[in-house]
Amino acid sequence: MKLRALLIGTAMMSLTVVSAKAVTPSVPPPLIAEDKILERAYYDTLSILGTPNECSDFFGGIRSVEIFNELISKVRKVYLPSVIGIRMSGTTTNIFNMRTKSEYRLFNKVSINGNGPFYKNQLTTTQAFVPGVGRFAANTQEARVLMFLHELGHVVKGTSGDWLLPDDGVDESKSRENTKKVEDVCGEQIKNLGKGDLLMNSDRGKFVAEKSAVADTKP
């Protein structure tokens, strides 16, 4: 995604094999409940990943909900230059979940910029507008979900053995290509956010989270 930085550099990597029950939390991280904008983006993203559609399939289907929750558990709000949306950095852990046969990695730090396009389209009335994300304007429901899905693409390994999205670091051109790849697959689901099928989008996301948590309690 444009306006983000994926910093791996000299990050040390480790491998973890998960054979126990899923680690999907029964309740979202505290920051979700404290931040209504973040909460809406979280549940909007869950509503896409947790239902059968082309976008969910791209990330591995319903099992991607668990991975997304692990990514979200690392989220912290920081204040950086407005050209940055979300930044993942620090030590990485490679994980293989034997139960779901999922391979993914987690970065030690996932930082959402309070001055970037996740929260703002303009810092002050005298400053230039913050550029959008893909086709979506900054500080919109759609842009936030696209940012989350972009980050998820960097942590999920595909059937080819490569990450769904290649590392783009501070390469804005490659970052835009990655965003376009996600948008090409997930654009319809993102555009339909809030229109709802059976439930309003955020409520459907909460249902997905609750269903996943209940599933994790089964032997």
Commentary on this structure:
By secondary structure, this protein is an alpha/beta fold. It has one domain (5-216). It is built from seven helices and five strands, in the order ββααααβββααα. It has helices at 30-34, 36-49, 54-58, 63-72, 141-155, 172-191, 201-216; strands spanning 5-6, 13-18, 75-78, 86-97, 102-113. Strands 1, 2, 3, 4 and 5 form a five-stranded mixed β-sheet that branches. A hairpin with a 4-residue loop joins β4 (86-97) and β5 (102-113). The longest helix is centred in the last third of the chain and has 20 residues, at 172-191. Residues 2-12, 19-26 and 213-219 have low confidence and may be disordered.
Overall shape: globular
Question: Approximately what portion of the residues adopt beta-strand conformation?
Answer: 15-25%
| Tally of DSSP helical segments | 7
The structural class is: alpha/beta
Secondary-structure blueprint:
Layout: E1 5-6, E2 13-18, H1 30-34, H2 36-49, H3 54-58, H4 63-72, E3 75-78, E4 86-97, E5 102-113, H5 141-155, H6 172-191, H7 201-216
Parallel strand pairs: 1-4, 2-4, 3-5
Antiparallel strand pairs: 4-5
